[in-house]
Amino acid sequence: MNAILALLATLGAQEAEEWVSYTHLYLARHHLKDGSWGGRPEKCAFPDAPAPPPKAPDPEKVAELIRRLGDDDPERRDEAQRELGAMGEGALPALKATRDHADLEVRGRGARIAAEIAERARGLGDVETTSLAILAFLGAGYSHISKDTYDGICFGTVVREGLAWLMARQDGNGRFDPKDAVANALAALALTEAYGLTGSARYKDAAQAGATAVERADVKEPRELVWKGMVVVSADLSGVEGKHAEQASAIAEALRKHPALLAGAGRAFVRAHVLKEKDERTDEIAKAAPLGMDPETRCLAAMALFAQEGHKGERWKAWNPGLKESLVPRQSMIKGRCERGSWEGEGVRARLRATSLNGMTLQVYYRYPTVFGAAK
User: What are the helix (H) ranges across 179-263?
Assistant: First the structure.
């Protein structure tokens, strides 16, 4: 880790040592007993902000989506299921009412969606949050064999348990969460990075199966394309077998046919990291204030801009101060507080996600040139 800290300091990140230790210490302290992240561990002493009451969705919209759960077109059924799941607790009354529905398809899907919403509300670990936390550790150089220990917590043990939880979730088709393509891609990325970082045989098969499942999956939403692209790049550079060049070509073709599929940071990210191409929208990113971006968009913007500029690029040097100002002063660093090392989020899961993504954003100084090739 000393080399990483030295490089981070050289490239201008402030208080590098405190950032590396306290960001990951926060994540380590909020690691659940089963190895996952996403819920509130018993030792968490940070009070959640009062949760706003669930927003009541449009009853007519909910009714229409429930009708579509029984549509003859399986894609329309799946789309309706995703939309209802995204509505959260506000849709629960209508979903629970489907238990008496005449259509068995509607009844079954309604029950599954209601169970998933209730599971999220209970604060259990989930694939996406767990994968992001692991990626934040791996990007800082902490792997399953790391011995670095802070406050009695060995980061190597934390990473190993997190990866084990993901692999236990993997099904025979290589998927970690068959209902969530983004979560599935992030889990595959965590495994390919773990394998690429260490070459450990224990992760090879899971990384191979995960990457293959992601590469074979049809892309339906922009976020899916972004993280699928990163899996393709990571798998290729980690020595995971696959038709990576063909996948990159397919992604390029998708962007040519459907230019509106991705915009802004997501498009520039894919073109920089997957296609190794410059993007005409890079100027738009360079002019946008990092503070006004959500954590995922800011992370993608930083990776896209840095990949195209490098740390000596004029646009990067002009944008980077705003990036640091949007992150470093806003990290909670109050001594003795449970949330020390984290960034704000509405509830434990959102705080974990923001902290992981912001950690990955700060890692852009050294992570992607080293893991994914030299910045251009």
Answer: 181-198, 201-216, 222-237, 244-257
Q: Which of 213, 266, 265, 203 shows the shortest CA–CA distance to 238?
A: 203
Neighbours of 218 (CB within 10 A): 8
Cα torsion at 265, 207, 78, 255 (round to 10°)?
Answer: 30
Helix (H) or strand (E) holding 154: strand 153-154
Residues 6+ apart with CB under 8 A from 141: 1, 4, 197
- Long-range residue pairs from 279-285, CB within 8 A, at least 24 positions apart, any chain: 279/304, 279/308, 282/308, 282/309, 282/315, 283/315, 285/319
Residues of the chain with CATH 1.25.10: 59-121
pLDDT exceeds 60 at position 91: yes
Nearest to 102 by CA among 67, 64, 62: 67
Q: Is 245 helix (H, G, I), strand (E, B) or coil?
A: helix
Angle formed at CA 315 by CA 269 and CA 268, multiple of 5 degrees: 15
Backbone angles phi, psi at 341, to 5 degrees: 95, -5
CATH architecture of the domain with residue range 59-121: Alpha Horseshoe (1.25)
Q: Which two tokens stand for residue 59?
A: 């009853």
Does residue 100 have a pLDDT over 80? yes
Where is pLDDT greater, at 310 or 198?
A: 198
State residue 371's pLDDT score.
33
φ, ψ at 150 (rounded to 5°):
-130, 130
At residue 7, does pLDDT exceed 50? no
Q: Report whether pLDDT(1) > 50.
A: no
CB 137 within 8 A of CB 24: yes
Residue 73 banded pLDDT, cuts 50, 70, 90:
confident
- Which runs of consecutive H residues, i.e. helices, occur in 122-172? 127-139, 155-169
What is the SS3 assignment for 168? helix
Task: Give alpha helix (H) positions in 279-331.
Answer: 282-287, 295-309, 314-327
Which strand (E) or helix (H) includes residue 150? Answer: strand 149-150
Integer CA distances (angstroms), 262 to 221, 255, 258, in order:
9, 8, 8
How confident is the model at residue 174, as a pLDDT?
93
Whole-number Cα distances in Å, 147 to 111, 141, 227: 45, 11, 30
pTM: 0.76
